[in-house]
Amino acid sequence: MAQRSVFTQTTQPKEDHTTTRYRWMNRFFTNDVSPDNYPIIKLQRRAIWIGLALILQAANEIPHDRYLPYLNPFGSLIPFALIAGSFIAMAMAFRPTSLKQQTLRGHPRRWQRIMLIMMLFVTIIGCIYFIYCIILGFLPPEFSNDGTSLDTNAAILLLQGRNPYTDSNMLDVARHFSIQPNWTTPLQKGQFANRVEYPSMVDLQRVLNTDLKKGTAPEFESKVSYPALSFLTLVPFAYFNDMNVVPFYLLSYLLLIYIAWKVVRPEMRIWALLFGMANVSMWSSTAGANLDIFYTLLIVLVWLLRDKRWSSALFLG
Fold first, then answer.
1. What are the CA-CA distances from residue 2 to residues 10, 144, 232 (Å)?
2. Alpha-carbon distance 103 to 92, whole Å?
3. Exposed site from 231, 237, 297, 308, fewest CB < 10 Å?
């Protein structure tokens, strides 16, 4: 009995130390493992898998040209493996789990704690992107994708009384916004006809310079992006002659995070904020003024208002 008492006294501080070390995780993982709380436990386990998917997608955001040349011909398998792994993780998130499995397994498990810590590190990158987006709002605009530049040009054409769908021209965009050749979408037309491989930076620059002299650019996409009339959101920027649209897309993404925080269960709100900050892919698109951010916001609103047909149809465009 004395030996058992000594053993209990010597092991108890270690258990208390372990509990104290992971106490902050109680904000993410519930301590209530009663049957009535199984829905929350299930959501938190799904959240870990979604977090793993975000971690893999964040790794895919590393510029490929920094390592692909050294790993040829197998370098292209790395982005494929990362994206495939993220899809598998999302599939695991929605895989049904029996109550027996939930009871036998501890909550949270060690690998789940590790995933949470890794997500917090990825959140630091998201915070850096957030600050970067704010800084970009005060700098001269850079249109790193032709979707945004074409939509901004469409807003300018509309204010000039012209038809954005017939008068849109990539050459006008190149002259007004000083875009780089790799910020365009090449087509298999003109000088790129019957070409299988993607044009290099040198080829894009050469063809663009030739098109600027000729006055026509069949090799580059010039049509306004979808959904219909989406460029109307950029008309205020064109009216005030402020072409920096990054604040608009930053606001769109912050609104997405707020909507997620608002609609989820109170126990999962901290996860919604964590996902919003750790989604490096979305932050990268926001910094690049990517139209997908605004489209995603519209699709989310359409889904949330699916029972209100007119409101849902309005956001659907």
1. 12, 73, 80
2. 18
3. 308
